[in-house]
Structure formats: C-alpha cells, structure tokens
Amino acid sequence: MRTRTLSTATALAVLFSSAALVAVASGPAAADSDKRLDVRSAGDVLVDGEHRRVYVSDPKGGKIVVTDYAGTVKATLDGLPDVEGLVLSPDSDQVYAAVAGLNRIVSVETTSYSQTASHALGGAEKPRTLAWASGKLWFGHGPSGEGGIGSLDLSGNEPVVALGQEGEADFYGAPELGSDPDSGVLVAGEKETSSDALAVFDVSGAKPELRVRKSVEGSFFDDIAVSPDGTQIVTASGAPYYHPVYSTKDLSPLGRYDSGTYGAAVDIAPDGTVAAGTSSWYGPDVHIYRQGKWSKVREYEFPNTGQTSGADTLAEGGLAWAPDGSRLFAVSSNSEDVFSLRILTDPAKSLPTLTVEAPAKAPRAKPLTVKGKLTGSGLPAGTELTVTRKDVESRDGKALPPVKTKADGSYSFTDSPPAGGKVTYEVAYGGDATHAAVSASDTVEVSRTKTTLTLDKNGKVYGYGADVSFTAHLGKTYKNRTVEIWADPYGADKPNKLVKKGAVNSRGDLKATVDMKRDTKVTAVFSGDARSASAKATSTAYAKVKVSSSVSQHYKTGKIGSTKYHYFHKNTDPVLATTMTYYEGRKQRFELQVYGPDRKWHTTGSEYFKLNTAGKSTVRLEAPGESGIRARIRSSYVNGTSGDNVNSTTHGAWKYLNFTR
Fold it and tell me: Are strands 563-569 and 655-660 parallel, antiparallel or unpaired?
C-alpha cells in the first residue's frame, strides 16, 4: 500500500504565520411498414401473388432474398453471381433469374425454393434483364458493345434458345425490357448509354417483328413498363424529370406522369394503376396515378435512416405491385448502403386528410365540442366517421355515436367526459373502393380534484447503511388508493428504483424502508384516477459514509486528562491508516491540528489523499524532531471536495499524538 507523507515541521511553521486553511399534419404518406434487407445491392424486385412472396435480387452479393408480404425472410438463394433480372412463370411455379456471372438463366421452384434448372444461352453473355411474352422468356444480354435480345422457349421437351432477336434495333449493352405477356408486345430501351431510342416488337408470331424504333425523351433507361392492355409504355430514366407515356403502336407521346425528379422505377398494376418511382433525397419517392390520368392519386416519401441530410432513395427498378393491387413493394437504400423493403398498403387508394380539434382544457362531466374536417376528392356529404373516447377508465376506448360530414367535409359533436385527466378523442374514416382509411385524434386535459400527497424525512441525515422508514400520506381520492415509493440514490451508476407499490392503509399511509448508503431522493407517486388528479411528493434524505482510522508506530498509549494519546519519540513518523466507503475517484481529507501555547487546537494543514479500490488510504506524518509537542489528526469525507457528492460530509474521530524524547 502506498503511503503519503505530510510534514509536521511545515505544519508548525504555518501555525505561526496563519491559522486559516446544482393536431395531425398533412403531407406525403410514409411506408406502412418496412424491413431491413440483408443485401449489398438491389437488381430487381418480383412479387409472387399466389404464394405471397417477394423476391429481391442482389447482384453484388450474388443471391436472391425471398420474403413474405410482411418482409420476413423466408429463404436466401446463394451462388448466383451478378444476378439481376427476375420474372415469374405464368403458372407461378417457377421464378427465372438472369445470372450474368454464370452466363445462364436459372429457374427456382416457388414452394421449395430449390433450383430446378440452369439454362445455357447458346453463347450469349451476361444476361441481365428478363420479360415474359407470348409463352417465351425474353432476355437482354451482352457485355458493353455487344448488346442484344434473345429468347428461351421452354414449351417443348427441350429448351430452345434463339439469339439475334433484336433485328435491326441494335443495342450497346443489355437492353432494359418491358412486356405485356398476353398481347405479344415487347419493348426494349438502351440501359448503358445516353441513346434515347425505344424499340417495340411484336413477338406473338413465330419470329419477332420490329414494329417501331424511335428516339424518345430520356436515356439510360432504368425501367420500362407496358400497360396490361398492351397499348401504353411508361419509362423511367434520369431525365426528363417525369415519366413519359408512349403508344405501343408508333411510340407517339400520350402524356406524362409529373413525378418531379430523376426517374428510377415504374410498375403498372393489373388494373392499370401506375407507380412511378423517383430517386429523391428531399421529396416524395413513389407517385401513384390512374392510367391515363395525370394528377396524382397518392405519393410516399421515405424516411431518413442514414447519416446524411438526404432521406433514403428508391433503388433503380425497385418497384413491384402485388397482382391484386393491394400492396406495392419498394426497395430503398440509405447513405450507409443499408437496403430496406418497404410495404405500401392500398397504394391505389387516395389518402384523405382528416383533422380533429378539441379544446385544450375542459371541466369534467360538462359538455365540450370536438370538430374537424375530412377532405379528399370524391368524398360526398354525409360520409360517416367513427368516434372513440379513451380515458383512464376506458383505456381501450369507448365507442361514441358516429358523426357524419357536411357538404364541405366538416363535422362536429359534443360529449361530456365522465373521467378527468388526459382524454383522447379519435375519429376514423374506414375508407371505400377509391379512398384509403385514415384516422386522427386530439387530446383534452379534463379537470380533476387536487390530491394531497406528503412524504416525511426530508432533510434528515443518517449514518451509513441505516434502514430508514419513509411514510407517504395520501389524502382523499375518488377510487384509486395506490401509491408508489421510489428511491433514487445520488450517483449516475445507481438507477431510480421502485421500493414499494401498494394501497395505503385506513389512515392513508404507506411505508417503505430505504437502505441509506448514499444521499437519496425519495419520491411518492399517485397516478390519479377518474376524478382525482395525479400527485407527487419528494423527500431528500442524506447518508454519511463509514470511516475508521488507526494509528501505528507509537511506543505506548496513555491518557492526558480523559483523552487517550499515542506516544511517539520525537523522530518517529506516525502512520494513520484510514478505511472509508469507496466510490470511484473518492479522496479522504487528512487534517492536522497542533495544541498551542494558548491551550487551544489550531489547524495547521490539510490535504486530500485518494482511496484505493478497497477504500483504504495510508498517510505517514513526518516527525517534528522536537519533544513536548501535542497534535491530533483525523480523516474526513467532505461532500463536493472529496471527489464526489453522493454522500454527506462525515468526519472521522480525532487521533491524539504526543511527541516525547
């Protein structure tokens, strides 16, 4: 143990020179739910409606992740380097994947997720995009400078691969494909260069027929979708800042969906509803339109889950409808390259705006008025809204009579809340065939009778480890007679802890015992009831530390008067060993006093010495070298200056020294 030294001679010199030493905001909707995807990239998204599964290809990770409609992973298909395009067979039995790293198209069974085939492509390299049309699987393939279109016919006993299906429509790299499986329309656009040409093929016959090839608005096509009736094409590319629409007959422009920024994806539901996706850090990411209607039905904005100011963005080609149109799946990524599958429910339905406005305060059992407004295109007067009241006696909610909107969408109702405290009125519209459900709420603070709650022992000081009984007293209340007593010891390492919870006795008292090892803030809490307000009472009590000291190196002990002294030869150094309740960084205050000619004790010096982790500190006092000197020493904990403030100031006992020859 390290021993510290304090000079008595210095302290004697000091003696003769000096004796002194604390409502609902409107705007773009967010995704209804989302799940993180364990992928490094996103190549394509596919929905299997029959089995309610979502497939996401990961080119960088060389795998396909399969989830259910809630985003829960059901399978991971590995060993697929640079896998990108995905397509589902018409009977939903097989998923086909373009695996550029293998120069093959791989098929996977949709119930077992086992690989059923791996198709060589007759020398075609790097297949990337897939489309199904007229009973054949069409693929865009080719490294840079060697792009083309091929087909894979699986209808016979053996697969048949045909290359060079692009005819006169040449492509630098593997083209982006879109199709209508029933009408035989296949559309291709350059994906790797700034070429703004689209090509439309009729693939319903024995050989593809190039219907039209034409320059259009846009380049570097990220996605292409063909309407279910085979008449329209919608493209997504970095420019222009909208999703243009073209005729499949002659690529004449039919209109545009004003999505507002860089196009990233597009998909069309079986009923023709268009989901236009954009790559936008600071605005909506998904925009919903009815086919041929240029005003938005609904839009979604992704949250910011990364470390930069811009929010998450949509992956290229990262949109896919469920076949029944009930959901739209979107893959997004943040600034840390973390990908998420976002599930958008009832996206084809417009989202009305609903407001609820209740008074901030109201008296209990007296009438109050709640009003608001339901706004949305096509909502008629008399639209019914449900009303629910939640309070301390009806936490799950009590249904109130429904209310109907007026011609302008406004509504109002009156209610006399029987319970006080926080009362919430929730108003909900259930939705219809074209409008999504929506709800909103507002809260009223309803008056309650003031409650009296007291707690004793405030300001009291106790010895270390004393078991102290605190008494909380609760005055008159309506029903609730339960009180909680919490103890929060000083120091960040000790949490606020529930000591006791229970009903008060017939006198209104509840007692709890606290082990006082630190200064402690004790709090009594009454949560209130339907007519009595909540209440809180605090009491801060203080605890000393445990301190003891022993003297060594003396040759005898004896009394001078009634005081016990330790006798030392004038050249022997006394040693004071102190044990004190430990706390990290704590120091003891070592104090020396000398008995003066005026027969009074004078403080001649003090110093702080750190405790070791066992709470011990040893100090050696340098001998004075003179006889006839009487001194006394002690160790103390001083709140604030001993390194912490978790206990109350505590002084150890004086130890008396007498220096002789």
Answer: parallel
